[in-house]
């Protein structure tokens, strides 16, 4: 951690905060506090400078216009690139995931991404809407992903990143893989919000940020109930 408290930045709540993705901030802060870690939360609007000294940066989903504007402002600001160079954790969801790559499509135009992840996004034949599930890369030691997706883009991974998961329901990147990660940067199409539905993923980010090998377990009864209920819904929908 960079200071005595865990500093979490929610990037551009005025642009990138659809489908309840701000919940990811609440979950991370709460799970850190429950482990006795002091937490400092900074919500940085798109007309403000991004501090480069935080431990975790969160990007949420957004419609095409706000996504394109958000990427432009982050490129002009440079703070996120400095933070990544210093080893900060970045977690991006949907629009916030796409814009970490080299390019993405918004309103029919190819837009420059931040080039922090080796991936690019274009448009798919249909909008991907519904449950998203998959087996997460075993190296991350996290149980299967459970989420909800709603996006028009499709994402193509380069050799410099690993897929976050293999898709078992939904589309994710392209119907085969979902999300991507490299170092302490991780992106997903999962809303829900993702970290409420996948508490082990929240703890992975907290471990990356703090350097802890293990964190004391928490009571995840409610999250597990939701995961079980959603798994059953996905299985029921797949039945002929
Ligand atoms: N605008 C992007 C797309 O449709 C991202 C959507 C989102 O963040 N939900 O692919």
TrEMBL record:
Active site, renumbered: 94, 191
Protein name per UniProt: Lipid II isoglutaminyl synthase (glutamine-hydrolyzing) subunit GatD
Binding site residues for substrate: 127
Subunit structure: Forms a heterodimer with MurT.
Tree of life domain: Bacteria
Family: Belongs to the CobB/CobQ family. GatD subfamily.
Ranges for domain CobB/CobQ-like glutamine amidotransferase: 7-198
Listed pathway(s): Cell wall biogenesis; peptidoglycan biosynthesis
GO terms for MF: carbon-nitrogen ligase activity on lipid II; glutaminase activity; transferase activity
